[in-house]
Design brief:
The protein has 161 residues and is α+β, with helices and mostly antiparallel strands. It contains 10 helices and 5 strands; from the N terminus they run ααββαααββααβααα. The strands form 2 sheets. Strands 3-4-5 form a 3-stranded mixed beta sheet. A hairpin with a 4-residue loop joins β3 and β4. The protein is elongated. The relative contact order is 0.10.
């Protein structure tokens, strides 16, 4: 099992194979059949290498930025090269906004594309991923678990933490 992981990681870290994957994921835009705006990145191809990018940032002694990037997700890439990065934690969003210029440069260098980064806070995902308190968990348990609900209604019990 370790042998295939070693082969796969060496393939992913090989610059020639990486460039081949990037070239395969680009398309040239021709508005009205004239003029070339240059390569445009495919969102799926960028997502494939997202974890490698986060590891790349961590290796460059920017482990704090890499930690914030782990809670983020690439959500869109427009034909103009604008890359949307959604943060599901408000603190990570605020920190990445402060380091936006450095992050912009790192993304452009790693993907070898002239990408413009747009970072935004996704409150909906934050609400879904936020850890629940013990009290919230107990309240949900008393409403959904039949055994707990029976004990509470029949014996007047109460969940206490």
């Amino acid at each position: 099992m370790g042998s295939w992981q070693k082969k796969l990681s060496s393939f992913a870290s090989n610059p020639a194979s990486k460039q081949h994957l990037l070239n395969a994921s680009f398309e040239t835009v021709h508005p009205d059949g004239a003029g070339t705006h240059g390569p445009v990145a495919d969102l799926a191809a960028l997502k494939v290498e997202w974890h490698q990018f986060v590891e790349h940032v961590a290796r460059k002694t920017q482990s704090l930025m890499a930690t914030h990037l782990q809670s983020c997700e690439l959500v869109a890439c427009s034909p103009g090269g604008v890359l949307d990065l959604a943060c599901c934690r408000k603190f990570s969003y605020e920190e990445l906004q402060q380091e936006r210029a450095v992050l912009q440069q790192e993304i452009s260098e790693f993907y070898a594309l002239p990408l413009q980064l747009r970072v935004f806070y996704d409150a909906e995902k934050d609400a879904c991923t936020r850890e629940k308190t013990v009290f919230t968990l107990f309240q949900e348990l008393s409403q959904t678990n039949e055994v707990i609900r029976f004990l509470v209604t029949e014996f007047g019990g109460e969940l206490v933490y």
